[in-house]
Amino acid sequence: xxxxxxxxxxxxxxxxIAAAVAALRAGELIGLxxxxxxxxxxxxxxxxxxxxxxxAKQRPADNPLIVHVAAAEQLGALVTRVTPLARSLxxxxxxxxxxxxxxxxxxxxxxxxxxxxxxxxxxPDHPVATTLLAAIDQPLAAPSANPSGRPSPTRAHxxxxxLGSSVRLVLDGGACPLGVESTVVDARGARPVVLRDGFVxxxxxxxxxxxxxxxxxxSPGTRYAHYAPRCAVEVVPGPDTLVARVEAATAxxxxxxxxxxxxxxxxxxxxxRRTRPGLADVxxxxxxxxxxxxxxARELYGAFLAAxxxxxxxxxxxxxxxxxxxxxxxxxxxxxxxxx
Length: 340
Ligand code: TXA
Ligand code: MG
Prior knowledge:
This protein has helices at about 15-25, 45-55, 85-95, 125-135, 155-165, 200-205, 240-250, 260-275, 295-310, 325-340, and strands spanning about 10, 30, 40-45, 65-70, 100-105, 120, 140, 170, 185, 195, 230-235, 255-260, 285-290, 315-320. The chain is of the alpha/beta class. Strands 1-8-2-3-7-4-6-5-9-10 form a ten-stranded mixed beta sheet, sandwiched between helices. Strands 11-14-12-13 form a four-stranded parallel beta sheet, with helices on both faces. Helix 1 (about 15-25) crosses helix 4 and helix 9 (about 295-310) runs parallel beside helix 10. The two termini are about 30 Å apart. The site of magnesium ion has 4 residues, from loops.
């Protein structure tokens, strides 16, 4: 069987945008940078195109897609009613990493909605996405541009590696500035219900930060295994146990990597310095250290994919405090750990 060449990664200059618009008008799929992660974009209102998105990702048919529009004014055409809550959330957070779930207008195909009566919509905050959406003037369905279950792509080459020739081209937006997917909120009622945590935090939404997680049936995607690299992911609760875990895994013959904030890794070293050798002396084959949980969010999926490339067997990730963006990071980490 002849293998098709990998898709080109195009600069998002006028020629690149024109090529993307032409591909999308022809019903093809493209890789599109957003401020969160790269999306696998196609015409949201064309069922045949949306079917191609599901096939490319091998995504379960009951897991609906997010519809992306250029501006908040386009929300009304996709839903039966823009609730007062949706209006105020859109005013506060769009463009930005917030997805609103509302009752769907009939023109949104059932396949896009995963068979639900609702549709998820957002206005991304990324110059390339904004330029493309304005140029094509069509809502674009764009799930994260990874095969189902795998880490989301935060760089153009991740899309090429994950989806290959299922995309016609990838627009290059460099590294995604945020790195975790949008916050998904059910905005049908009077109060926001968080279906997936993200950069628009529960604190910013005025939602009880310690509130119970959303019931699983309300966000279909949360039912499935997610974000997992091809190595074991283990969440290490605190610095005091990190070195012991590195040593135990290394002694068991595993190639071990560590991801964490600089402070946590330094604490881990300080905690064991009295009795044991440093991290570098215990056979660590890979490590990524970052400033804080915001940087961890940005680097997490890239670190997963880089750990794979370094043929790490077990990636130990130091937990971050579970508030603000840390909640979204810990959510993704736990899912990756559970799936491995
Ligand atoms: O940041 C993002 O949201 C990225 C970029 C590309 O925009 N997109 C993204 O899409 O993460 P995806 O398909 O990987 O995740 C969409 C999530 C899933 O958990 C899905 O179940 C949920 O949104 N979702 C979509 N439509 C929904 C609906 N009508 N009701 C409840 N949840 C919905
Ligand atoms: Mg996804």
